[in-house]
Amino acid sequence: MSRRQTKREEIERMRKEQEEQSSGPRRGMGAAAGKIRLDADTGKLLVRLFSYFEKKHLFRLALAAVCVVVGALISVRSSMFLGRVIDNCIKPMLMEAVPDFGPLKQAMGTMALLYGINVLAILIRQLTMVEVGNGLLYKVRTSLFGHLQTLPIGYFDTHPYGDVMSRFTNDIDNIRQLVSRSLTEVFSSVISIVAVFIAMVRLSWKMTLVVMGTIIIIYFVSIAIGGASSRNFTLRQNSLGLMNAFIEENLNGQKVVQVFCHEEKIKSEFDERNSDLKKKSVIANSLAGILMPINASLGNIQYVLLAVVGGYLAINGKGTLTLGMLASFLTLSRNFTRPVTMISQEVNSLVMALAGARRIFRVMDEAPEADEGYVTLVPAVENEDGSVSETDHETGVWAWKYPHKTSGELEYVKVRGDVRFYDVDFSYTPEKQILYDISLFAKPGQKLAFVGSTGAGKTTITNLINRFYDIEDGKIRFDGINVNKIKKADLRHAMGIVLQDTNLFTGTVEENIKYGKLDATYDEVVQAAKIANAHNFIMKLPQGYDTVISGTGSQLSQGQCQLLAIARASIENAPVMILDEATSSIDTRTESLIQQGMDRLMAGRTTFVIAHRLSTVQNANAILVVEGGRIIERGTHEELLEQKGRYYQLYTGSTE
Fold first, then answer.
1. What's the pLDDT band for 625 if we cut at 50, 70, 90?
2. Which of 3.40.50.620, 1.20.140.10, 1.20.1560.10, 2.40.100.10 is the CATH number of 40-364?
3. Which end is more exposed in the chain, N or C (fewer Cβ atoms within 10 Å of the end residue's Cβ)?
């Protein structure tokens, strides 16, 4: 099964998930009216998200909470202020021939001071939450990226890169909105509701009942509209992830698109996905957008009802409600409805953030690459009797540090590069087996070549050597040690690999070569480049080894990128070398230049070579012909030609 095929299957799986979400109610949501019901794991999800707060941020959170309480109390105070001014200042002044403005000025000065404190509290709250929110996102991003480094290669083979990237962009941004804004708004609204409710009850419990009746209507409207909005926001996020994956795939293959003149086809497919995203975004944002105006209109209706009821009570209530108290109550009702509406509006942000957090944690809950190995790779020195001992500095000699679990004995086995397969079976998925009964051996210093049709399983065999994937049955031994007992990092340090797809990183040429050995000196970098015959073209670059190249290597030819990859592998000086189509992107002249360097690189090393150009493997100690996941022929170039089997057909292009 190819990587492209598995990626397509993953995209198709995501599409089916979207269809299921759009055709039926989500778990935890009512089937009838699309009610908002937070999923059963919402509490755990929030606790897990907030666990990323650092201890130093707890004080800032407490400070922000204090600022919220101060703001809520000042808001209530300002509402009550209007009634007191009317009853205690303005009304008495109307009865006096010479009005005394002293009490009014004093009250205005007090409120000006309180408003100044409120502005300061809001400023402190906003700045504090911005810092706290970005601190949390920093830890989430760090944890997510760190966990990605622990996942097996199979995960990236089956998940589109664009969809993985959307976790770092859209989903993280939704969490930022929640932490930096929505949380404080909701908390502030709750405090305001409690404070204002107490103040309203003290003024008039009868009018408070009118407010509560209106609030119940606003609640059910918010539930109905918000439920449908949250469901469509989730669908929009999934659609956005699919479109990102489509864009990433086609940008990487833009050259292929233009070669086959598929620009219009790709534009049509993009328009289809973009239209789907637009449709879901319009529905989600429209539902979210109409919620606030509808609630505002209901608030206006409430205001009119309160004015009528309050006016009646003020006139016929036998003094229980004054005009000043009525004015304060009307202001309080506004301050009560506004936070209720704000909470209903922030429900969308909460749902989007929870959807983003759920997607992020789904990745972080992926099982990391399993590694039960306990044999490690250590630098060693050879003793006079031929044994090896561990040392604390690099000597060019390496040994496996092998603690036997049964006897407790510690054994040092010199790394020689002896690799053997015993009856190995393997499949990427249970329903389709890829390799059948693979048995082979490569003695130290031997060069083994794999040839065969595309998809025969050649690359898969080499991927099993370094444990990119684990076998289902059989054994693989490295220097007589089962590779399952060797720590994966140590096993891979013992191998230099040149992959079929060349991946460079943004940085200098020297840094890209040193990727194989981060502590390498400049002289070692130059030596590795010379072995790969890359030194000459590097020196012709504008700044030589200090020339900065992009991660795509767009400034270099494909062959030059491949030469840098070979130099990167050679600097590691590993006892085993795996070359997966290492010369597939190199022209005939360049191929002849690097062949000498490759021979020097492979000298004394066990080497596994995969090549479609059979001319590059004629000097191999053994050539293995792989077809249908089985090794059907083994021998030297001359031996296989004499057999006139599959290798003969591949080499001559004819059949007997």
1. very high
2. 1.20.1560.10
3. C
